[in-house]
Amino acid sequence: MCGIIGYAGPRNAQEVILDGLKRLEYRGYDSAGVAIVGRSLEIYKEKGEISKLASSMPSLDGHLGVGHTRWATCGQPSKMNAHPFLDCKGRIAVVHNGIIENHQALRKQLVEEGHVFTSETDTEVLVHLLEKHYKGDLHAALRETLREVKGTYATVALHVDSHQLVAARKENPLVVGLGHGENLFASDVTAILNYTNKALYIMDGETVVLDPQNVTIYDHEGRIVEREPHVVTWTVEDAQKGGYEHYMLKEIFEQPTAIHNSLLGSLEELENGSLMVDQDVPSVKLVACGTSYHASMVGKYIIEALAKIPTTVELASEYRYSPGTGENPLTVMLTQSGETADTLAAAREARRRGCRTLAVTNVVGSTIAREVDSVFYTNAGPEIGVAATKTYTAQLMAMYLLGIRLAQIRHAMGRDEVRELTSDLRGMPRYVGSVLDRSQQVNEAVDMLVPAQDVFFLGRNINYPTMLEGALKLKEISYIHAEGYAAGELKHGPLALLTKSTPVVAACVKDHTYEKMISNISEVAARNSPILAIGVEGDTDLAAVSDAIVYIPPISPILSPVPLTVMVQLISYYTAKKRGCPIDKPRNLAKSVTVD
Q: What is the pLDDT of residues 75-90, one digit of tens each?
C-alpha cells in the first residue's frame, strides 16, 4: 500500500516529508520520491530505500511539497516509475495511490495531443490531464481530471506558482493533519503525529484544498463540507520501536496491553446489552482476508460453541463473486486497517444483498466504518510491523465478545457461564504475559526450523486455524515455505512430504482432541520429522513424542487460541531473526492491500 505525505507550512518541507515517508515505510514500498516547491519545482526519486533517496538529495529550501513511497502495480519498480510525476512543462507534480483503470485509453489520447510520457505507470496520466485542464486554478483542474478517470485514488498535486496542495480520494485512505500555521496530507495518521494529533478523514468523492492556514473540503458536487476534526489518541512514541530490535517484537510484547484496551469498556457494554448487536440472528457469516481470515475461522468455532448459531467463513476476495443463497446472515467484516479493498467490496455486496453488517477494525475513521451498519473498534493501537500480531489477538477478543453477546440474546449461556468466561477474558493479559515470559525458551527451541525449506503446522478443532496463522507468520517473515493443516488430514497427503528435514510444529492443548493429537504427532515422529510441540504447562506426555516443547499456561480450551497465537508469533519471529530476514519489511508484502 503506497504512502503519501504532503506539507504546507513554515517548516522545511524536505525534512517534514522525509520524516513522514520514514513513518510510512511499514506499508511496504519499492521506490520513493519527493517534490519541493522553492525557487522552482524540484523533484528527486530513487528505487529502493528512503535512506538512499535522502542521501541523494541536496538541502532544499522550500515550504511546500509532496512525497511518496510506491508499491509497484502498473510498471516495474524503478526510478523512472517512482512518484512524483511532472507535467511536460515541469510545473505540476502529482503523487497517487490506487489504480487508474482506463489509463491506456487516456494515455493514447494524451500522446496524440502531444503530451510526452516518461514512465510505464497508470498514474502519469493524472499529471498530464491536470496540465491539459489547468487554467490558473489547480483545484478546478483536478475536478475536471477526475471526470475523465475511472478507478481508485488518493492523489495529491501541487503547482509551482501556488502555495496550495490539492487532493482527492476514492477508495484509498487520505487524512489531513491540522497544525498551527501548517497543514499536512498523509495516507495515515502515523505520518503526521510528529506535528499534530488533529485529523480530518477525507471521504470518497471529496476533494480538498490545503494551504498553511486553511483546509477546505468539497463534496462531489463542489459544495463545501464542514467536518469536526478527530483527536488521535496514538502518540509518536506508540508508533516507534521503544528499544525493541523490531516493530514486530515490540508489538508482540504489547499484546497484554492491547488485549486489555480491546476489552476496556466492551465488557461493560456486554453486561448492559449494548455491545455490537441488539437482536437475534438466524446465522452469521464472517468475511475477511489474510490474517483476519484466520481470526474469522477461530470466530466460527467460538460463535457456534457459545451461541449455537450456524456460522460460515468466507474470503472477502471470493465473497462478492459468489451467487448468494437468499439468506440474510449477520455479515461481519474483519479488517485491521479498515481499508482492505476486497473486504470493502464485500461489505458493499453484503448490504446490496440486504444483510445486516458489522465491521471489526482497528482504525477509527477508516472507510469500512462508513460501509457497514455498526462497528467494533479493537483499540489495539498502531501496528507498524507488516506481519499482524497484536491486531490479530485483538480481533480474537472481538470474536469472543460477539459470541458471548449472541449467546446472551438467544439465552444459550447462563449468567454464571457468562460471568466465568468474561472473568477469564479479563485475565487474558496475564495468560499472554506468561507466554511472553517464555520467549528465551522459544528462541532456543526454534533451531530445528532455521535451516528448513518446508515446515508443517498441525492443530485440531479451534486451534486448527491458529496453526494456519502460525504457518502464515513463518512464511511471511522467514521466507520458509510453511503450511498449516488440520492434523486429522495428515493421511490425506501431507504424510508423503514428511522427512527428517521437514520439521513439524504441533499444537497439543488439553481438550477433547488431545488423544487424537498425540496419535497424530506419533505418526509424524515415525517418519523421522523433527517435532516442536506446543503443550500446556504440566503435560508430561508430550516429551515422549517430541524433539522440543514450549508451553502455554493452563487455560480453558476455548480460550487457548490466544496464548497459542502468541507462541507461534514468537516461534516465527525468532526463526526469522536467526535467518537474518528483514522482519518488519518482508519482501513483496504491504501492510494493507488497498487495490484488487
A: 788 999 999 999 999 9
pLDDT digits (tens, 9 = 90+) for 337-393: 888 889 999 999 999 999 999 999 998 878 898 899 999 999 898 888 888 999 999
Radius of gyration of the chain (CA): 25
SS3 333: strand
Question: Quick one: CA torsion of 482, 539, 389, 47, rounded to 10 degrees?
Answer: -40
- List the one residue out of 553, 171, 522 whose CA is nearest residue 344: 171
- Is a pLDDT exceeding 70 seen at residue 238? no
Tell whether the model's pLDDT for residue 595 goes beyond 60. no
> What does residue 298 show for φ and ψ, rounded to 5 degrees?
-65, -40
Q: What is the mean pLDDT of the chain?
A: 91
Question: What domains are defined for the chain?
Answer: 3-238 (3.60.20.10), 242-426 (3.40.50.10490), 436-583 (3.40.50.10490)
pLDDT of residue 458: 95
Q: State pLDDT tens for residues 299-344.
A: 999 999 999 999 999 999 999 888 777 678 999 999 998 888 899 9
Q: Do 524 and 490 meet the contact criterion of CB atoms below 8 Å apart? A: yes
- 212, 242, 225: which is closest to 169 by C-alpha? 225
519 φ, ψ (degrees, to nearest 5): -65, -40
Q: What's the grid cell of residue 201?
A: 478523514
Burial class (CB in 10 A: 0-12, 13-18, 19+), 136: exposed
- 235-267 residues labelled b (16+ CB within 10 A) or e (exposed): eeebbbbeeeebbbbbbbbbbbebbebbbeebe
Cis ω on the peptide bond leading into residue 84 (within 30° of 0)? yes
Give the residue numbers annotated as catalytic, written as ranges. 2, 591
Q: Can you tell me the distance from the alpha carbon of 593 to that of 1, in angstroms, rounded to the nearest whole number?
A: 6
| Secondary structure class of 478 (helix, strand, coil) | helix
287/249 Cα distance (integer angstroms):
28
Name the residue among 24, 78, 83 with its Cα closest to residue 48.
78
| Bridge-based pairing state of the strands 531-536 and 504-508 | parallel
pLDDT digits (tens, 9 = 90+) for 63-75: 999 999 987 777 7
Q: Which 3 state secondary structure label does DSSP give 374?
A: strand
**pLDDT value at position 294?**
97
In which residue are the cell numbers 480538498 written? Answer: 208
Give this prediction's pTM. 0.75
Average pLDDT over residues 150-167: 94
C-alpha cell at 522: 506419533
Contacting residues for 387 by C-beta, under 8 A, at least 6 apart: 248, 291, 473, 476, 477, 572, 583, 586
Convert 95-124 into a string of H (helix), E (strand) and C (coil).
EEEEEECCHHHHHHHHHHCCCCCCCCCCCH
Burial class of residue 453 (count of CB atoms within 10 Å of its CB; 0-12, 13-18, 19+): exposed
pLDDT digits (tens, 9 = 90+) for 89-103: 999 999 999 889 899
HEC-encoded secondary structure of 437-463: CCHHHHHHHHHHCCCCCEEEEEECHHH
Q: What CA–CA distance (Å, rounded) separates 23 from 69?
A: 11
